[in-house]
Inverse folding.
């Protein structure tokens, strides 16, 4: 829904076709999603990869885990632009996917052809198949990148305490997301089993091969949208607050979708509704620890917005074209 809304208003997109896997004939969008009651002329079509490749220029998959490991193959084989929002194509090693997602993995040669589209730090220009990063992975990697790339922290000391609103769990309600359970509550979940752990580690190892593990935890917040990743790490003895500040300033100086807030730590309401990731960092000389706070809208920077940034890079559009930049005011 959110991806469609953004694509429908994108200045370089002249049409959006919507496909549903369970349809045998077209239905009005509003009959499936009542919020789109005003979009009387928009339909959902039965899905067919032949139709997609004939009438569209790029395909986005906003599908459950386990779908694109096979559904994306015809597009990747044909070199047709494809952006996958699910986790199926992010991990390069198939056995890791099976271990963390508890499902059969895509073939290794398919995984080898997909680009991990962390759009603010590694452009998708020239790429055809994109694995759009997970929401927790996006906030965490953007918060850690300056510290890891500049070699400021002891890499065995990384601890991530991340929290998300319930929309991160998708459309099907579950035990944790049932209103009476989630409302006015905080729930730790997937302890040491979160599927974004191997994804984060895989990218950290691209930046620094010596990183062997991270401590990573997730908590469900009683809100609909927004994700905060709070990151702690021990810095090397001579590292100063000024060196940390310089690492963040230089890493994000020319990055359109990340705003470094210095030692003023950001909160969710300054990014919810936008494609920005806001990142702040504070050094504590007493403990020798740096604390980073990285916030995103899980449905935008954590999913559809980053997918559009990847599309913009693939097609040479301005980096933030079609991206929402205004917060949802209280
Ligand atoms: N929500 C978030 O914050 C984020 C989500 N993601 C990932 O992005 C993807 C989409 O997220 P979200 O919209 O929240 O997920 P939802 O669970 O809300 O929606 C999943 C969609 O997948 C479709 N689907 C299910 N099975 C199949 C199938 N066999 N073939 C084709 N389509 C199928 C469903 O269609 P139907 O209902 O008609 O069966 C539904 O539209 C997921 O993989 C999710 O993990 C990634 C980052 C953040
Ligand atoms: C609140 C909540 O449940 N969030 C989801 C977000 C991850 C997700 O969307 O899944 P993939 O990125 O792996 O596709 C979770 O923690 O599993």
């Amino acid at each position: 829904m959110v991806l469609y809304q953004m694509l429908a208003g994108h200045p370089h997109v002249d049409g959006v076709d919507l496909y549903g896997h369970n349809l045998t004939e077209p239905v009005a969008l509003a009959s499936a999603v009542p919020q789109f009651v005003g979009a009387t002329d928009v339909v959902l079509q039965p899905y067919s990869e032949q139709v997609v490749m004939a009438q569209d220029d790029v395909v986005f998959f906003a599908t459950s885990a386990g779908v694109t490991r096979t559904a994306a193959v015809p597009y990747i084989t044909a070199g047709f632009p494809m952006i996958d929002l699910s986790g199926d194509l992010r991990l390069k090693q198939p056995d890791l996917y099976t271990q963390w997602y508890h499902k059969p993995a895509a073939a290794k040669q398919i995984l080898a052809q997909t680009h991990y589209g962390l759009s603010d730090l590694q452009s998708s220009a020239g790429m055809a198949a994109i694995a759009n990063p997970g929401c927790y992975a996006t906030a965490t990697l953007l918060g850690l990148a300056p510290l890891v790339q500049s070699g400021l922290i002891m890499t065995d000391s990384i601890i991530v305490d991340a929290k998300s609103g319930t929309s991160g769990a998708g459309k099907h309600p579950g035990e944790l997301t049932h209103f009476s359970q989630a409302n006015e509550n905080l729930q730790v979940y997937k302890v040491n089993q979160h599927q974004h752990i191997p994804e984060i580690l895989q990218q950290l190892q691209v930046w620094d091969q010596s990183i062997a593990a991270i401590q990573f935890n997730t908590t469900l917040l009683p809100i609909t949208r927004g994700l905060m990743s709070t990151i702690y790490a021990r810095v090397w003895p001579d590292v100063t607050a000024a060196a940390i500040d310089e690492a963040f300033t230089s890493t994000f100086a020319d990055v359109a979708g990340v705003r470094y807030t210095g030692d003023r730590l950001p909160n969710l309401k300054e990014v919810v509704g936008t494609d920005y990731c806001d990142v702040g960092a504070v050094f504590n000389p007493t403990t020798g620890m740096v604390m980073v706070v990285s916030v995103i809208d899980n449905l935008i920077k954590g999913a559809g917005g980053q997918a559009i940034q990847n599309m913009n890079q693939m097609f040479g559009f301005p980096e933030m074209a079609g991206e929402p930049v205004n917060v949802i005011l209280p």
In short: The first strand starts at residue 18 and ends at 20.
